[in-house]
Design goal:
This protein folds into two domains: 2-72, Ribosomal Protein S8, Chain: A, domain 1; 78-237, no CATH class. Helices cover 17% and strands 64% of the residues. It has three helices and twelve strands; from the N terminus they run αβαββαβββββββββ. The protein has helices at 2-16, 29-39, 59-72, and strands at residues 18-23, 44-48, 51-56, 78-103, 106-131, 136-149, 153-171, 174-186, 192-196, 199-204, 209-219, 223-237. The strands form three sheets. Strands 6, 7, 8, 9 and 10 form a five-stranded antiparallel beta sheet that branches. Strands 5-4-12-11 form a four-stranded antiparallel beta sheet, with no helix packed on it. The protein is elongated and about 75 Å long. The termini are far apart. This is NolW-like domain-containing protein. Residues 1-16 form the signal peptide. Keywords: Signal.
Length: 238
Amino acid sequence: MRFFLLTCVLSSLAFADQLDTLVLQHQVPDQLVPILREAFPDASIQGIQGQLLIRAADQASFDRIAAMARKLDQPSRRLQISVQQRDGTSSAQWVLDGRAVISHQGIRGGVQISADDQASSQQSLQTLRVMDGGRALIELGSERFVPAWRSGFVGEWQTAASGFWAEPRLVGDTIHLRIFPKSSRFERDDSVVIHRMSSDLSARLGEWVLAGETIQATTGSQSKGQRQYQVWLKVDAD
């Protein structure tokens, strides 16, 4: 009797679930499965040899999953990613000029204070093309040899470059993008200023968006200011 009841329960659960496969025409399962699982967390979705194995709670749920899968199963489009990196500095130089005169009438003195505001900026714009769902890397720069003396003449090569690594995924007119930009430049004092950033974002096609920003305050004995680094990007589709 208990065996019969258990069989009935399992049979009812089996009939309640909707299990079927969906053959993909253009995309591979690994590209669609994470998206579908995020949109339908209660369903079981797996990829098997160019097909999706979908287990849903009922027929209506299965139809919604299948409809989204067919919408995503489109020929891959070629995307153009444009990234602009802006590195700017601003500072105020304070100059103190003091003097004192000693005479029989006492001490006379004066102090003159002046301020000089300075600003500099550097921008780089880089563009690359990549297929939707693919990965791409671009890096352009230069090297220099910096000599040094440590128990003999030695030195090292330093690199200053700008570039980014990107992984785009297009859903409708919305681009989902993982991006890792970096920028470095030589300074007059032989140092190298380096910026790195990582971002996961979503944006509309053809729109410039701010991917990230850092602002760092700088202080010195006779100056103060700030360094600002921004990354702007835009993605277009052919």
